[in-house]
Each structure stands twice: as structure tokens, then as C-alpha cells.
Amino acid sequence: MFGKDDLVDHLSRDLDRARVRRDALASEATTVAAQIAEIEARLVEEKKRRERERVLAEIEVIKTRIRQAAGAFAPVVDGLSKAIEQATAVVPEARELNSFLVSVATEIDSVLDPLLRELDQRADAVRSGQAALDLPSSAIEAPAIELPKDPNERLLRFPAWLSRDKEADKKDVSESPRSTAA
Questions:
Q1: 182 residues of the chain, pLDDT tens digit each
Q2: Measured between alpha carbons, how far is 178 from 172 in angstroms, rounded to an integer?
Q3: Residues 129, 108: contact at Cβ < 8 Å?
Q4: What is the CA radius of gyration of the chain?
Q5: How many CA atoms lie within 13 A of 61 on its CB side?
Q6: Which helix (H) or strand (E) holds 77?
Q7: DSSP summary character for residue 134
Q8: Strand ranges inside 35-150, DSSP E
Q9: Which residues contact 114 (CB under 8 A, 6 or more apart)?
């Protein structure tokens, strides 16, 4: 019987050690699970922070491009306006183009400041975490401008005398009293 008691004691000690080891492993598994949850939370926060930084950087790039384009547009409009003013000596109707050009420049100027302010407001909302980070990563690239499929549909309507439609010009020339065909 002595050998059997020894076996029971030995198995009891093995069982006790296995339970202690199981409890230690369970405690360690709980600790590791908590560490994983903490690291996942930090990873999510870091991804959000980087996405906010990306969106803010892209908004700044957009604002810079708008300012640069507007800065380049003003001298072109001024030079074109002066050239058109000289052309009015030969073609008086050129004043229409000049006034059209001035109205386009004025319209653009009137909407640029509100657009830049709106971009600033969106950037502030992103900084404070109140705005969704839905700016596509390709926003830095200039979107393709789709031209009208109908050649008669123009983005800008020019005065009739500047029309590229030569058929109207041919009719006018053939009916003109100054025409050499008569």
C-alpha cells in the first residue's frame, strides 16, 4: 500500500503544479490580451493621427495651388486686357471681350477668398477631430477636366463675332457688300 500512496501523492503534486502553471498561463494570457488591446488602440490612434496629417497636408497643397494659380492668373488677365484694349482701335467689338474678361476675373476673385476660408474651416474641423477624413489620397493630383462632347457646347460663351463657327462667317462674307465675289 505504501507504493500506492506514494503514487497518489505524486499525482496530486503533479496536478497541483499543472493547476498552478495553468493559472500562471491564464494570468499571462490575460496580461498579453490587455497589452494587445492597448497596442491596437495606440495603432488606431496613430493611423488616425497620420490620416489627419495627410488630409491637412493635402488641404494646404490645394490652398497653395489655388493661390499660385490665382497669382499667375491676374497678370495674364491684365496683359490680355491691355492687348484687347489695343485691339479695340481696329475691332471696336473687342470691348465686349474685354468686359467679359473683366467679369470673369472679378467673379473668380470674389469666390477665391470664401473658398480659401472654407478650406481653412475644413482643416480646423479635421484638426479637432470633428470632420470625417474622407479626402481621397489623390486629391493632390489635378482632376481631369472633361470637355463637352458636343462641339457646339462651349465652357465659355464668347461674343458672336469671336465664334469659331466659320460657317456663319462665310455667310456674312458672301452677303457683305465689300465682298470681292460680287
A1: 455 778 899 999 999 999 999 999 999 999 999 999 999 999 999 999 999 999 999 999 999 999 999 889 888 988 998 999 899 889 888 889 888 888 888 888 888 989 999 999 999 999 988 877 666 555 555 555 454 455 555 445 545 544 445 444 444 545 444 444 43
A2: 10
A3: no
A4: 38
A5: 13
A6: helix 2-87
A7: -
A8: none
A9: none
